């Protein structure tokens, strides 16, 4: 169910597109579905349906679970029961239907599987949880131990509001019976909605057994209804990820100030200082140290490399024993060989630096091949863009580029060449020679500074 607006989020973005660990809520749920190997997955869209369906379009064509994915629209949105009614034409009578809430993102596949097993094709199985603060949730009403129904918080009496056992929004039902119950829902309640949760009382009336399965932990089934709940769930999820990494020996300076918005793979003896963000797929080799306040996306870092604070990397490849930062920026295609040094305020894009090359201060390297042991001076840049096209710069082995040079691409600097400081190089520079391209220094003997003229009265 992904049709609701999420009024309590107070956002123009539909709730199920808000991000948890960098990933829309709905995709967390669909990732879980994908591992369940259902015959088909039906997503009920409604509020901002175009935006939600656009997110799913990529998956539907990607094959796998997406091949069995379809969207149905619920317009207008008259409640969770009404939402599931829209999916009815796509559900086979002889199957089991597992209903998941688009705003309950972290339910584990094992839990969902256990629920389908508890349903056993003939019972109504509800995933429940004991909560100390059950406000807002539907409460499980029991008589003599057996479930009689679910009462929504807004419809509950004071006594019912004291019930701590809540419905998590996840159930499994025999499809034929579910269809019968859905057809009998009414909206006679506080919110004038067709509640899915009313099927429980209808099952009881039909003499169908209602069974409950308890969720593993609270984080798994917490719903996101407000910005505060989203932030709370984010911290819980990050803490879980931090714990898993620490269990594997990764040393986090502070697990509460650490964010993985994708997948982080770490070798042995990795150390990560506070406030780092990892996005996409990041691989850190053995002994890598990451300083504070780094943002690293889709990047691989070789063993023994040290990243100093405040670096920003996107789609870069970094070799072994590299020294980088503070304040370094690696853009897509930056490829650093072993023992390279990249210092403060250096930007590298689509460039390969061979072993031991250094760019230690205030520099730009774009579309460049840099040979071994090159020393690239402070303030030097490659002018790789002529306003229409990008061109390559090739710097040979053992080249020394002085400070404040502009290498106007396309240009080749031969092995062992030295480029004098302040040069603008727009022709190839031969190997082994000093090339200087700037005005010659001159000193004028007898030259005097102008003096201020006295005003005449
Ligand atoms: C729902 C349950 C409540 C349970 C809680 C668990 C009902 C009536 N109540 O309450 O018992 O404790 O989840 O998190 O089911 N949606 C639609 N169409 C609609 C309305 C909602 O698709 O017309 C979708 C929403 O996008 C959302 C999900 O259904 O993904 C749940 O809706 P929400 O309004 O958040 O229900 P809760 O009040 O949290
Ligand atoms: Ca909810």
Overview of the structural elements:
It contains nine helices and 36 strands. The protein is elongated, with a radius of gyration of 31 Å. The longest helix is centred in the middle third of the chain and has 21 residues, at 227-247. The model has no long low-confidence stretch (mean pLDDT 96). Strand 3 (41-45), helix 2 and strand 4 form a beta-alpha-beta unit. It has a 23-stranded parallel beta sheet that branches. Helices cover 19% and strands 30% of the residues. By secondary structure, the chain is an alpha/beta fold. The structure holds uridine-diphosphate-N-acetylglucosamine and calcium ion. Residues 103, 223, 225 line the site of calcium ion (CA).
Overall number of strands: 36
User: How would you sum up the major sheet?
Assistant: 23 strands, parallel
How much helical structure, as a percent, in the residues? 10-25%
Our measurement of the CA-to-CA distance between the termini, rounded to an integer number of angstroms, reads 89 Å
Strand content: 25-35%
Low-confidence stretches: none
Describe the global form.
elongated
Given helix and strand content, the structural type is alpha/beta
Radius of gyration using CA atoms only: 31 Å
The molecules bound to the chains, other than polymers, are: uridine-diphosphate-N-acetylglucosamine, calcium ion
What's the rounded overall pLDDT mean?
96
- How many helices? The count is 9
């Amino acid at each position: 169910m992904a049709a609701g607006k999420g009024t309590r989020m107070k956002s123009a973005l539909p709730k199920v597109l808000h991000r948890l660990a960098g990933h829309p809520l709905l995709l967390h749920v669909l990732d879980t579905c994908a591992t369940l190997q259902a015959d088909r997955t039906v997503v009920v869209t409604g509020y901002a349906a175009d935006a939600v369906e656009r997110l799913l379009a990529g998956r539907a064509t990607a094959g796998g679970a997406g091949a069995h994915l379809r969207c149905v629209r619920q317009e207008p949105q008259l409640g969770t029961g009404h939402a599931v009614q829209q999916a009815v034409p796509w559900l086979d009578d002889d199957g089991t239907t597992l209903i998941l809430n688009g705003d309950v993102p972290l339910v584990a596949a094992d839990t969902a599987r256990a629920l389908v097993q508890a349903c056993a094709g003939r019972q109504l199985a509800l995933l429940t949880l004991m909560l100390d603060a059950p406000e807002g949730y539907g409460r499980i009403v029991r008589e003599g131990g057996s479930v009689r129904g679910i009462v929504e918080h807004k419809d509950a009496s004071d006594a019912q509001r004291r019930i701590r056992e809540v419905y998590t929004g996840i159930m499994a039902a025999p499809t034929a019976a579910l269809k019968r119950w859905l057809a009998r829902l009414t909206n006679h309640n506080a919110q004038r909605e067709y509640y899915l949760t009313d099927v429980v009382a209808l099952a009881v009336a039909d003499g169908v057994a209602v069974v409950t399965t308890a969720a593993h932990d609270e984080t798994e089934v917490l719903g996101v209804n407000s910005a505060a709940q989203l932030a709370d769930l984010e911290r819980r999820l990050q803490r879980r990820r931090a714990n898993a990494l620490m269990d594997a020996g990764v040393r986090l300076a502070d697990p509460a100030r650490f964010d993985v918005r994708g997948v982080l793979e770490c070798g042995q003896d990795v150390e990560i200082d506070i406030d780092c963000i990892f996005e996409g797929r990041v691989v850190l080799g053995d002994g890598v140290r990451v300083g504070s306040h780094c943002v690293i996306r889709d990047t691989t870092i070789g063993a023994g490399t040290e990243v100093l604070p405040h670096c920003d990397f996107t789609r870069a490849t970094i070799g072994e024993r590299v020294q980088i930062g503070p304040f370094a920026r690696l853009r897509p295609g930056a490829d650093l060989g072993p023992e390279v040094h990249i210092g403060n305020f250096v930007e590298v894009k689509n460039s390969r630096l061979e072993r031991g090359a250094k760019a230690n201060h205030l520099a730009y390297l774009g579309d460049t091949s840099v040979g071994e042991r090159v020393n690239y001076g402070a303030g030097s840049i490659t002018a790789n863009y002529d306003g229409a096209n990008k061109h390559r710069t090739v710097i040979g082995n053992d080249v020394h580029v002085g400070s404040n040079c502009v290498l106007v691409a396309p240009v080749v600097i031969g092995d062992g060449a030295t480029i004098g400081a302040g040069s603008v190089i727009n022709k190839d520079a031969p190997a082994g020679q000093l090339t200087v391209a700037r005005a010659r220094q001159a000193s004028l003997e007898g030259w005097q500074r102008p003096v201020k003229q006295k005003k005449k009265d």
